[in-house]
Design goal:
One of its GO terms (molecular function) is glycosyltransferase activity. This is Glycoside hydrolase family 65 protein. InterPro entries: 6-hairpin_glycosidase_sf, 6hp_glycosidase-like_sf, Gal_mutarotase_sf_dom, GH65_N, Glyco_hydro_65_C, Glyco_hydro_65_M, Glyco_hydro_65_N, Malt_Pase/Glycosyl_Hdrlase. Keywords: Glycosyltransferase, Hydrolase, Transferase. Helix 9 crosses helix 11, helix 16 crosses helix 18 and helix 18 packs antiparallel against helix 19. The strands form 7 sheets. Strands 1, 7, 8, 9, 10, 12, 13, 14, 15 and 18 form a 10-stranded antiparallel sheet that branches. A 6-stranded antiparallel sheet has the order 19-26-27-28-31-32. By secondary structure, the protein is of the alpha+beta class. Strand 29 and strand 30 form a beta hairpin. It is built from 20 helices and 32 strands. Bound molecules: beta-D-glucopyranose.
Length: 791
């Protein structure tokens, strides 16, 4: 693994695999994944190896194999595999001799390149160069190229390429077989339909062969097998002569937004896909690549963050995060959202968690509000399913699923990894009792509204989400006669090492916040008495609900900080549990090593946390807690936290900034930045950690850049770590585009004017900078001393 670019001008943009090692395939497949939010392609090599995971996912196309299983994103047909034979010998890196090997991933445009000099077992040497991209310009397309040059002997080159629909998700075949066709010995199609959701997939490829740059009119041999259609090409090459094979491939599905609007006839989807692919193939690899590259250039221009750090890895990791945030997010369609592994692996089956609202949405809110809107609309589309969940559990309103797909109904599997005490699979309780997600979704909708002022969203979707989630909590509260309070018992908070706890502080506070926000929204709607109010009053009986919320909210038990120690109990029992020496697990090389020694039941009896719990609350509801409380709880809980969830470190980094421990904040940022991209060669075999990727941005921009907002006011509390001299980033706030630049002694906020607004009078914007009200018209400079305004 190498992070330095061979060409110095691309420093901070390129990540390389410098030696082939079959044990590390999964790592590179994940981090070098390509995509565009519609299509996600794991970076499996063209030739096959044991242990590889060849995945191609199309966002939103969930299928449930049988009723006992949860729905998952099916693995589409493989269009990348190439069987190459050189003088009859299969090209395979576990045979022969590798003279040089380098696979480079270029974040500038997500291009994957592989250069190899390989000698077969008979002593003939070849140079092979592969290139691959998934188009950002045309979401259905991907392109690949391989160039083969014999270096020592003239060679007979065979390339077998096609569409392989024999793919499964760890053995589960989600598709019914469809059509296979060969057109003009150049274009192949294979269709398949998901077994339960009835989504038709049309895979199409067109390939061309060249010798020394000139197209070869070869006659490839077509073949078909079960769920497979192939073409075999053959060409001769002299020493030094290059044979090039270009392939353009596409996927379309009957679930596509751009297809849904046209027709539903399967034959015409095939024809549509064919026309689409032919038009692309006529442009050729180079032009398609250029268009794709330009789309990325435009994107980077819009989102680019600059960091001057003594460690160049910081800049690289933030770019890596922004690259993955782009390819994991279905910005084209709000019927589905971001999976916990994006579109990079089978892990978590493509399901959506609280990860989206709490860890990923902030990036889009402040960088690309139009995409943020898609993410919050998704929760509106799934409101119906959330209402059903509430009813199924005996509650009212909307109870959002812990794991969500397209309907909004619960999709958490029931059984998980082995329980080391009983030897049976562990029961997964999160789908039943990790209920804080409902308040997190409401928080996401509100946060979006505050950051964008998007009243249309609020009127059409947001208010309803606020009211329905508050109603869920009102029906969820349990009256405790003895304490004369409402409690919430038997839940899992963010710390999943504590199951069946009562009054998890995070859950109670967020439920309270949710109800209070619904009360506030209802009052403001009542004041305007517009048609939104009339509709919600009619559909939801707002006045009646308001009465219930107001009556109950005042009695919700909110665990208070101890007046001496400032500690807030994480739940009713945590502070009384046994304390053990956690050093071994805190120094672990592989996460969750404690599960090899303790079962989930045993973990519930020890003061040990999987991830940030109360601390997340300090970030979401920052004004509800004093600095002393934040610091005291940080110092108590962090040493008991194993950071066994990838969501943990970035939250800790951000909160370390709030307690002004910048060295620790940086140390945690640096660790968070290495969860996927670092040198642990198995940390992300199952796919990227989407929330951790969002967390890298959060730690950099909301932590060191100090970007926060509270009730519609933007706050900037920048504090650079010692290793950074400068941080510059784009920031969107309520319709305005800002460029924020922080140096050690100066903060500069510039308003970027759109063409339409040049010359027009700008509305003054109020920003709190380190707690001091400042007003911005078009440009603001504040003197800082070590990050704090100079008095
Ligand atoms: C974490 C959850 C998270 C989920 C998906 C779990 O390991 O504990 O907080 O939502 O992974 O990323």
């Amino acid at each position: 693994m190498e992070y330095k670019a061979t060409d110095a001008q691309y420093e901070g943009w390129v990540i390389s695999e410098t030696a082939f090692d079959v044990r590390h395939l999964a790592k590179f497949e994940t981090i070098f994944s390509q995509g565009n939010g519609y299509l996600g392609l794991r970076a499996a090599t063209e030739e096959c190896y044991g242990g590889e995971r060849r995945n191609l996912f199309i966002a939103g196309t969930f299928n449930r194999f049988v009723n006992q299983e949860v729905t998952e994103l099916p693995n589409a047909a493989d269009m990348l595999q190439l069987d190459i034979r050189l003088n009859g010998n299969p090209f395979h890196l576990e045979k022969g001799t590798i003279h040089s090997y380098r696979r480079e991933f270029d974040l500038r445009q997500g291009e994957l390149r592989r250069d190899i000099v390989w000698e077969d077992e008979q002593g003939a040497q070849f140079k092979l160069r592969y290139r691959r991209f998934v188009s950002l310009q045309n979401m259905h397309l991907l392109g690949m190229r391989v160039e083969i040059t014999p270096l020592t002997h003239p060679s007979d080159i065979f390339i077998r390429s096609g569409i392989n629909g024999q793919m499964t998700n760890s053995g589960v075949q989600h598709f019914l077989e469809g059509d296979r066709r060969v057109f003009d010995k150049e274009l192949l199609q294979l269709t398949a339909t998901t077994s339960q959701s009835d989504i038709e997939f049309v895979h199409t490829i067109a390939s061309q062969l060249y010798r020394s740059g000139s197209r070869l009119q070869t006659d490839p041999v077509p073949s078909m097998e079960r769920r497979k259609v192939m073409l075999t090409y053959q060409a001769d090459a002299e020493v030094g002569e290059t044979i090039r094979f270009d392939k353009i491939a596409s996927v379309h599905t009957s679930f596509d937004f751009d297809w849904n609007e046209r027709s539903t006839s399967s034959h015409s989807l095939m024809a549509f896909a064919r026309e689409h692919l032919l038009a692309a193939a006529n442009k050729g690899f180079d032009q398609l690549f250029n268009e794709h590259e330009q789309a990325w250039q435009r994107r980077w221009k819009h989102i680019s963050i600059e960091i001057s750090s003594s460690d160049f890895f910081d800049q690289l990791s933030v770019r890596f995060a922004q690259y993955h945030l782009t390819i994991m997010t279905p910005a084209h369609d709000s019927r589905f959202s971001i999976g916990a592994k994006g579109l990079t692996g089978e892990g978590y089956k493509g399901h959506v968690f609280w990860d989206t609202e709490v860890f990923i949405l902030p990036y889009f809110l402040y960088t690309e509000p139009e995409t943020a809107r898609k993410l919050v609309e998704y929760r509106y589309h799934t409101l119906k399913g959330a209402r059903k969940n509430a009813l199924d559990h005996g509650y009212r309103g909307a109870m959002y699923p812990w794991e969500s797909a397209v309907t909004g109904e619960e999709e958490t599997p029931e059984w998980g990894p082995v329980d080391i005490v009983t030897g049976t699979p562990t029961y997964i309780w999160t789908g039943k009792i990790e209920q804080h997600i409902t308040a997190d979704v409401a928080y996401g909708a509100w946060h979006y509204y505050q950051a964008t002022d998007d009243q249309e969203y609020m009127d059409r979707c947001g208010y309803e989400i606020m009211m329905e989630t508050a109603t869920f909590w009102a029906s969820r509260l349990e009256w405790n006669e003895e304490r004369q309070q409402y409690h919430i018992t038997d839940v899992i908070g963010p710390d999943e090492y504590k199951e069946h706890v009562s009054n998890n502080a995070y859950t109670n506070y967020m439920a309270y916040w949710n109800i209070m926000k619904a009360i506030e929204c209802t009052h403001s709607l009542m004041q305007v008495q517009n048609e939104v109010y009339a509709r919600l009053e009619q559909e939801l009986s707002l006045t009646e609900r308001l009465k219930e919320w107001e009556e109950k909210a005042q009695y919700i038990y909110l665990p208070q900080p101890d007046s001496y120690s400032h500690l807030i109990p994480q739940d009713d029992t945590y502070l009384h549990l046994q304390v053990i020496d956690l050093q071994k697990y805190r120094n672990q090389k592989v996460v969750a090593s404690i599960l090899a020694d303790y079962s989930m039941t045993q973990l519930s009896e020890i003061q040990v946390s999987k991830q940030a719990d109360i601390l997340v609350l300090f970030y979401l509801l920052e004004d509800w807690f004093s600095k002393e409380v934040k610091a005291a709880n940080w110092h108590y809980y962090e040493p008991k936290t194993l950071h066994d969830s990838s969501l943990s470190l970035s939250t800790h980094s951000l909160l370390a900034c709030d307690v002004h421990d910048m060295d620790l904040a940086y140390e945690m940022f640096a660790k968070a930045a290495r969860i996927d991209l670092g040198t642990n060669m198995h940390s992300c075999d199952e796919g990227i950690h989407a929330a951790s990727i969002g967390g890298i941005w959060k730690a950099a921009i909301m932590g060191f850049g100090g970007v926060r907002s509270w009730e519609g006011t933007l706050r900037l509390n920048p504090m650079l770590p010692r290793t950074w001299d400068r941080l510059s980033f784009p920031l969107y706030w309520q319709g305005s585009q800002l460029q924020v630049t922080v140096n050690r002694d100066k903060l500069e906020v510039k308003r970027i004017l759109s063409e339409a607004s040049v010359g027009s009078k700008l509305r003054e914007m109020n920003i709190l900078i380190h707690g001091r009200p400042c007003s911005l018209t078009d440009h603001l400079i504040i003197d800082l001393k070590e990050g704090i305004p100079v008095e």
